[in-house]
Write a structure and sequence with these properties.
The protein is of the alpha/beta class. Helix content is 37%, strand content 22%. It contains 8 helices and 10 strands. It has helices at residues 18-25, 42-46, 75-87, 114-125, 141-148, 166-177, 193-203, 210-222, and strands at 2-8, 29-35, 56-60, 66-70, 92-96, 111-112, 130-135, 154-159, 183-186, 207-209. Strands 2-1-5-6 form a 4-stranded parallel β-sheet. A 4-stranded parallel β-sheet has the order 8-7-9-10, sandwiched between helices. Helix 6 packs parallel to helix 7. The chain is globular and about 50 Å long. The model has no long low-confidence stretch (mean pLDDT 96).
Length: 224
């Protein structure tokens, strides 16, 4: 069995994500997870609210709810997760988050970032460099411009909470349908294949999904 590590910025295990990625990995791989917020109470997580200039992150907690917090509070905790996974013999580590992270993590195995995968795919696939980016929170709209603006001619961020009701994703899809974008990126690990299928059916546009793009890249790297 090939051991694959997964670091979530929230709490592990990500039982919402695994139903969509484990079938892609097949029976040759074992997924080992660690979470930057593991062991913390909601009250402790509340103290991690993003400061004015902090990078805003949103992730799922073990009780099925979600939390919004600043990146600066979890970088050290993510490094601890990386270390624990390495000690368990993983071949590589996936970051279960579509956000952008500084190059600060030390690891003896490859770390795979969905943001870099999505950036490359979108640039290759968007013939007019005109995309819609569906992002979890209104506070992340400017971050979407910052991430995608340098590589795309036109970026339209639309907020829809992946951990809320599916109606939010449906409304985002209706807005995306009215744009002249030629590609939609669902830029959070929290969006499911069901959500992607909904967006695709409403917009009739090609859609990139964060979690499955990540899983398929890992399969290519490990020859699964």
């Amino acid at each position: 069995m090939i051991k694959i590590g997964a670091v979530t910025i929230g709490q592990s295990p990500r039982v919402d994500v695994t139903p969509d990625i484990l079938p892609i990995f097949g029976e040759k791989a074992e997924l080992i997870q660690a979470g930057a917020l593991d062991g913390l109470t909601r009250e402790e997580i509340t103290q991690m609210a993003p400061a004015k200039d902090d990078y805003v992150l949103v992730s799922r907690l073990n009780d099925g709810t979600f939390a919004k917090f600043g990146e600066s509070f979890i970088l050290k905790r993510m490094q601890e997760c990386v270390k624990r996974l390495e000690e368990q013999g993983v071949s590589l580590i996936m970051v279960l988050c579509g956000g952008t992270f500084p190059d600060v993590f030390e690891a003896g195995v490859p770390i795979v970032y969905p943001a870099k995968i999505l950036n490359g795919l979108a640039k290759a696939l968007s013939k007019n460099s005109n995309i819609v980016v569906i992002t979890p929170d209104e506070d992340q709209v400017q971050q979407a411009y910052d991430q995608w603006g340098p590589i795309m001619k036109k970026v339209t961020p639309i907020a829809a909470n992946p951990y809320g009701k599916m109606e939010e994703v449906e409304k985002a899809a209706e807005k995306a349908k009215e744009t002249d974008a030629d590609l939609i990126v669902m830029d959070c690990i929290g969006y499911s294949r069901q959500a992607k299928q909904l967006v695709r059916s409403i917009t009739d546009k090609p859609v990139l999904l964060c979690r499955t793009a990540l899983a398929r890249t890992v399969c290519e790297l490990l020859d699964l």
